[in-house]
Amino acid sequence: MFGFLNNNKTRFVLFQIIAVLIVAFVAYYAVSNLNYNIDRLGIRSGFGFLDIRAGFDIAEHLIAYTADSSNLDAFYVGLINTITVSIIGIIFASVLGIIIGIARLSSNYLVSKLAEIYVEIFRNIPILLQILFWYNLMLISLPSPRNSFEFFNVVFFNLRGVYFPKPILESGFYWVMVAFLLGVFISFFIKWFFNKKHDSTGIKQRTWDYHLLSLLGLPLGVYFIFGSPVYFDYPNLQGFNFRGGLFFSPEFLALVLALSIYTATYISEAIRAGIESVDKGQKEAALAMGLTQAQTLKFVLLPQALRVAIPPIINQYLNLTKNSSLAAAIGYADLVGVFSGTVLNQVGQAIEIILMTMAVYLTLSLLISLGLNLFNYKIRIKGLNQ
Amino acid sequence: MSKLLKLSIALLLAIGNLSVQADTLSNVQAKGSLNCGVTTGLAGFSAVDKHHKWVGLDVDLCRAVAAATLGDSEKVKYIPLTAKERFIALQSGEIDVLSRVTTWTLTRDASLGLNFAGVNYYDGQGFMVKKDLGIKDASELDGATFCVNKGTTTELNLADYAQEQGFRYNTSMTDTIAQTKSNFEAGRCDALTTDQSRLYALKTTLKDPSSAIVLPNVISKEPLGPVVRQGDDKWFNVVRWTLNAMITAEELGVTSATVDKPSNNSEVNRLLGNAGTMGEYLGLDKKWSYNIIKQVGNYSESFERNIGVNTPINITRGLNALWKDGGILYSPPFR
């Protein structure tokens, strides 16, 4: 009767079906059980809470937000703060990681040893402790607003954060941006034109001055023609705190610092692994063929090294984004802090809020992964799989 | 976060508890101990003392419920919770009663599947500032940065107050009370705002308590009380009348020292189970309130032991005096 089980293929399909059924049952059970519990306990459910007035303030918001805004606005504020921290963290971590990775391969003993010590220390301390360390260090060592560290009387650094002059763009600045875009376009044209000339005549011509002129000269010219359409809003001390200007809180600084320093260790290792994966003979051959050091790096070593380094670096970018949720530990207003912190407590709908938060992190991770996979696809060895 | 997630999943998969949860009293008596949600540490209300024992006004309520239901005030398992974990812990059945300086509001009462069983402390939100700022009144706080405990009514009251006064302000949000305090001490903010009772408690734990002052302004009503799950009226009655027993005992002058003395007062006899069948109505034994008063004491004893004028926290009874002494503490009669 169960003879069909002896068929390998049938059995394979059968087990798959059973597995799917079990998963479906558990999911169905969890959801119906949840609905039952929520009904029984008289807990409010649904997403109606998103439209309700939030009623609390958030210190750091990049979009317009007051206590009168809705919970959905609070969600956006948190989301944008999370993305900001992640992007800035990724930029700093990458720069630092590349420098450290190359430093580790330096023939200078001191430089490579220092880089190694850096990696070993910061890679092996849990990220949460590092965040708390930098934050508390700032709280202990920074002065009060009245005794701020001053830089040229325009940048101020104190316990409440760092304050920069904030550029306010007037309408004329629109044309400066147009000019810059035009400059980029011209720059591409110059490159295309001289490459073509190089191909047909073999003459290599100096081009950086043309690029400089189109990328920098053109926008600057327009900027002055429109009479410098930018002015600055300077921070100034009023009562308890500085007002005006662009402001970053100590929580933000500590978070970016800790995330960058921590993630940079992993990125540097990925870079080092990538460079070391390229056989020494490749470099020697390139040099023997008369390529300069810079050309060797650009045309021979980096294209091969990046191919090895990019996949682990993608993972580190994902980790950094997810680790940014530890912001809640020091009270930075990220998605976890604002949405699954304050909003959750004010409306009490844990399931909906936690689900939304998880969906956001999943989406962010998938987006980063997609972007870098596309990049990875672009720099792959072409022609191998065709 | 991981704890929050764990509790949410518990809510999602609360299978085993379903049938038992509906009857918390039998459940507590069957397992022989009470799970009580308290703060992560707030002097005077729920904190661990130097003998590693939980003490405080809110802890005394947990102990009283244990004395009433289990006959032993020590049979309590204390579960420290942050502000944002507390309601989920109660909803998911992780705790049987929440006694954690929780403000009774309409939203919480009506939309979270919870019931407030009474008020064990009438509070109001206030401000603490460093003395050297020279501030005497909250109206001078325009432009200040405030240290706030995240996930509390405090955040909402502060926003309302600032809007009303036309203040511009900044906040520094923290998860635990300890961190709110250390941020205030480090100067991360100009003023710390929370319930006044808590301000006094925090002030005593500052490195230099005399460096800060609590401003006289009270910007909100904060009735704090024990919370239970909605839909379990029997358990709700037990917790409510445990609190009422402590208040009534003070009113009748019954203390842990005099509880064994015979009395001619018939209400005292009803309270102590010598007459009537009060315990039976609540599903408890005759000695339920005797055990509360004998082991924990009446409201006044609990208050003076934990937060009264002879403690470092030094709070006068004020609103929390009995109705006949000028306060608003009032228990329905034991009849």
Tell me what the structure shows.
The complex is a heterodimer of chains A (386) and B (335). Chain A is of the alpha+beta class and 386 residues long. Chain A folds into three domains: 3-43; 71-165 and 234-378, MetI-like (MetI-like fold, Orthogonal Bundle), CATH 1.10.3720.10; 166-233, no CATH class. Chain A is 66% helix and 7% strand. Chain A contains eleven helices and eight strands. In chain A, a hairpin with a 2-residue loop joins strand 6 and strand 7. In chain A, helix 2 packs antiparallel against helix 3, helix 9 (293-323) packs antiparallel against helix 11 (350-378) and helix 10 packs antiparallel against helix 11 (350-378). Chain B is α/β, with parallel strands linked by helices. Chain B folds into two domains: 2-122 and 224-325, D-Maltodextrin-Binding Protein, domain 2; 125-220, Periplasmic binding protein-like II (D-Maltodextrin-Binding Protein, domain 2, 3-Layer(aba) Sandwich). Chain B has helices spanning 2-12, 18-21, 24-31, 57-70, 86-91, 106-111, 153-165, 177-186, 196-204, 233-251, 266-271, 278-282, 288-295, 299-306; strands spanning 34-38, 47-48, 54-55, 76-80, 97-98, 114-116, 121-123, 125-130, 145-149, 170-174, 191-195, 212-214, 222-224, 227-229. In chain B, helix 4 (57-70) crosses helix 10 (233-251) and helix 4 runs antiparallel to helix 13 (288-295). Chain B is globular, with a radius of gyration of 20 Å. Chain B starts with a helix and ends in a 29-residue tail after the last helix. The interface between A and B is large, with 49 and 54 residues.
